[in-house]
TrEMBL record:
<dbReference type="InterPro" id="IPR035069">
    <property type="entry name" value="TTHA1013/TTHA0281-like"/>
</dbReference>
<feature type="domain" description="HicB-like antitoxin of toxin-antitoxin system">
    <location>
        <begin position="3"/>
        <end position="126"/>
    </location>
</feature>
<dbReference type="Pfam" id="PF15919">
    <property type="entry name" value="HicB_lk_antitox"/>
</dbReference>
<protein>
    <submittedName>
        <fullName>Type II toxin-antitoxin system HicB family antitoxin</fullName>
    </submittedName>
</protein>
<dbReference type="InterPro" id="IPR051404">
    <property type="entry name" value="TA_system_antitoxin"/>
</dbReference>
<dbReference type="InterPro" id="IPR031807">
    <property type="entry name" value="HicB-like"/>
</dbReference>
């Protein structure tokens, strides 16, 4: 799943700060923007693990453009970080569905561009439709 992260520029006395707007309370920091993004992935993984342990579903990230338009984050930099949350989700169940061949080809093309499997793509699309 790709999560937008808001990166607050460092100052002489602070590191680069990171907030994950789709996961309230999930934040991190780093000595560089690269470190901040790497640390954000770890923070997201830990946050998602805690959500699942508490019986809370991992939210589907909102589109980056929606967060960029939020005045709360004016002046912040943005990035997308890819986090595999599938190992936090239990009770996977195989599903046999029939779709038109052209639709399967479109799904596979979109999944490939995003670097995910067909199943991950369909699960993300279902989560987005259900929110």
């Amino acid at each position: 799943m790709k999560f937008p992260i808001a990166i607050e520029p460092a100052t002489d006395s602070t590191a680069w700060g990171v907030v994950v707007p789709d996961l309230p309370g999930c934040f991190s920091a780093g000595d560089s923007t690269e470190d901040a993004a790497i640390n954000a992935v770890e923070a997201i993984e830990l946050h998602c693990e805690a959500l699942v342990e508490d019986g809370v579903e991992i939210p589907v990230p909102r589109p980056l453009a929606e967060w960029q338009a939020d005045p709360e984050f004016a002046g912040w930099m943005w990035a997308l970080v890819d986090v595999d949350v599938s190992h936090f989700e239990s009770g996977a169940e195989p599903v046999n569905i029939t779709l038109p061949r052209w639709l399967v080809a479109e799904i596979d093309a979109h999944a490939k561009v995003r670097g995910v499997t067909r199943a991950d793509f369909l699960a993300d699309a279902a989560r987005a439709a259900l929110r």
